[in-house]
Amino acid sequence: MNLRTAALLGLLALGTALLPLLGSPYVIGVAFNLMMWIALVQSWSMLSATTGYVSLGHVAFVGIGAYVFVLSMDFLPLPLGLGLAALSAGFFALVIGLPVLRVRGPYFVILTFGLSELVRNIVLRIESALGSFGRMIFDAPDPGVLLWWMLALAIAATVVAHKIRDARLGRGLAALREDEVAAETVGVAVARLKLIAWVASAVIPGAVGALLLLRTGYFEPGQAFDPIISFSIVTMALVGGTEDARGPILGAAAFVLLSELLWSNLPQLYMIVLGVSLIVFILFLPRGLIGLFGRARRAAR
Amino acid sequence: MTLLTADGISKNFGGLKALSDISFDVSQGSILGLMGANGAGKTTLFSVIAGHVPPSAGKVTFKGRNVTGLRPDQICRVGICRTFQIVRPFGGLSVHENAAVSALYGSDRRLTSRAADEAAVAALDAVGLGPARDDLAQSLTLSGQKRLEIARALATGAELVMLDEVMAGLNPAEVDEMIAVLARLRDERALTFIIVEHVMGALMKLSDHILVLDHGQRIAYGTPAEIAGDAHVAGVYFG
Amino acid sequence: MPGAATFPKGPLQMDIILSGQLLFSALVSGALYALVALGLNLVYGTLRLLNIAHGELVMIGAYTAFWMMTLFAVPPLISLPLAALLCAGLGWLLYFGIFRRLLRNPDLAARVEANSLILFYGISVILQNTTALMFTSSARGYAYLGNVITVGEVSMTGNRLLSLGVAGTLTIGMLLFLRFHIFGWSLRAVIERKEAARVVGVNVDQVQVITICAGFAVAGVAGVLVSMTEQITPFMGFPFTITAFVVIIVGGLGNIPSGILAGFALGFVETYGIALTSASYRSILIYGLFVTVLLIRPEGLFSRAVKS
């Protein structure tokens, strides 16, 4: 990422930070969504772009964060609650990580999906056993405050996703992505690195889940663990491009824009465009928008 | 000085005895050749020493330390590195990065990024891949990719390099080139090698000693000249 | 869920567990699961495509039967071949429009399963939402053969009996076909060793096209059967996709006979599992089984799966 890009992103972050003071509730809402998706996709890419293990169940971490937060809300101030949400998601990832990461290729993809649905159904069952079919949130913080928190998460996720690639960890992940057996032979502790990437990719989504919960104002397992979120993350990553930390930002921006244009009137049309984009990008633009711009820039020289 | 000792290595897969009570030494700065028909147990022995598969019985000692049953990445940091019969380059990475990441992770000391790059450059030069540094590993020819595997092993700082049929698929000119590279590495850097080889000429030329396996058992051990003259080996090999 | 009967809530009753009623339910569920999974397995076995839009084909079959019945008073039996044709046509279109491109591009084909999952997800979203746009999301349904037939102590409705009959015949027919018919052998050859099959003269491309059409058609047929007893909505397909995946994972990806067996097994596990616990545990049971099998033995429980 060169200086110009960093400056641009810095400007974007600054502008977003000012919105709660200047912008309308609508703009704050859109900015919140954008920051949320950036945080989610960057986190996802920490695992899936680096190691090639595509997770189709990332909403599980979002939902777990939300659930832990809603249960602990009355006892903890906001920052601690967010921290607990993040840690819970990370802990969950840690506990199931070793067996899960032993599963390879497409099996891993559908396993993550199945796991996410399993967790959703378990939480549903627990909630119904507790007699709860949804929990209302009262006294949620001001949307501007929530935006600031989400901005912080988006920045944190972007910084980590960027730094990870050139660091020792990132290079080891790139090697194991190419060939796990060979990587082990040259000293890469493959299982440990995968686990680190997996847990790292879970932590911020946990906090995102808590913030999202506060924003929507209620907790309902079906929504908190909605698989559409997992698929949207993958779509945005694909469309934006996964080569570096700029892709997720582009992908998130593209779809938030699209959703603002289409959602309120024609949610089905939005979904259809999402589906078509997926197909078009996988077949014709596998490197995403970033790859497209890169090619255009090279052609212009 | 003895670098590696294998002591009573046995490996069973279910009812199949892949290795029975294999023992041998390898001295530092020498080349041990492993000979045997397909299924004789050479690859299994490699896998046991390299940590991919634990032995059913027996012990592997390296520089006085028991390394039996360690994970492959731990074995690498101890100083043993293996190559693969069917090459496994990090295809999407550059030739340089292949070696650099090996240096970064393979040594028992944590290298800085710059030190890893320097080690990578040295390793690539040693096998003649310097000029191809920025190419993608998958774009190399087979001979290049085989040399890359050796370079990766060098970059990890390994003292014992295990080569699994490194000559396979090379034409005669490339075979001679490879023999020269390996001999030079042994002489200039006092590297130790265990090589599995079906290309008899190369095996005989390179090895200081040869261990012959048949059906998981050791049937002969000696210098190339001794093995060549061994009637029992000839009988097993040529029927 | 198809075939699931309702039982009075109360303590576990042995006579219910051992009843023919429950057995019938399990058989109907099992047959439908086996049928739906069969289509999925056919497509995976020959093309290595993971069709996560499979449930949408069931949905299409269901809507076909519904509109035929509602608009033209055409009974589901006639809609069966119609739905089969419609879905086969869709398969044909998707193959030539999208998937041949996927398979021919070496970079994409290297990770064909993962890429096909995502591609099919896009297709599934398009199918669901296009249907919702055309017909709204309201639930539809119709009545057909709801008369109760009693054999001994077992009460069966005509429509579920028909489902069992059609699904059972198709699955057993497929087993026999694979075993004894020359095209069935070509199919098995392509599933097990594609390149070898090509070398011995099997027209692999033709087999692939026919199979994807057949796999889609089978799902459409299952949709017609399901429509007789279930509510029809644009989003009804998803649970079928999940159960189909559970079945083919348990049976081993690409292993057709094993998948049929696993389908019946799942029907039994689900029916008796619910009877022993309660319907609210159904999803946990299914996903739990799914996850467990993948973690322990990704190649499937029943037998040697096809290597990818």
Q: How would you characterize this protein structure?
A:
The complex is a heterotrimer of chains A (301), B (239) and C (308). Chain A has 14 helices and two strands. By secondary structure, chain A is an all-alpha fold. Chain A has a two-stranded antiparallel ribbon with strand order 1-2. In chain A, helix 1 runs antiparallel to helix 6, helix 2 runs parallel beside helix 6 (143-166) and helix 3 packs parallel to helix 5. Chain A is globular. Chain B folds into two domains: 1-79 and 159-172 and 179-239, P-loop containing nucleotide triphosphate hydrolases (Rossmann fold); 91-158, no CATH class. In chain B, the strands form two sheets. Chain B has a six-stranded mixed β-sheet, with helices on both faces. Chain B has a four-stranded antiparallel β-sheet with strand order 2-1-4-5, covered by helices on one side. The radius of gyration of chain B is 17 Å and the shape is globular. The mean pLDDT of chain B is 90. Chain C has 13 helices and two strands, in the order H-H-H-H-H-H-E-E-H-H-H-H-H-H-H. Chain C has helices at 14-17, 20-47, 54-72, 76-104, 106-110, 112-135, 158-180, 182-192, 194-199, 204-227, 237-251, 256-276, 282-296; strands spanning 148-151, 154-157. Chain C has a domain at 25-234. Chain C has a two-stranded antiparallel sheet. Classes of the chains: A mainly alpha (301), B alpha/beta (239), C mainly alpha (308). Chains in contact: A-B, A-C. The A-C interface holds A 54, 56, 99-100, 102-107, 109-111, 114-115, 117-118, 121-122, 124-125, 128, 231, 234, 238, 268-269, 271-272, 274-279, 282-283, 286 and C 50, 98, 101-102, 105, 107-108, 111, 113-115, 117-119, 121-126, 128-130, 132-133, 242, 245, 249, 280-281, 283-284, 287-288, 290-291, 294-295, 298, 308.
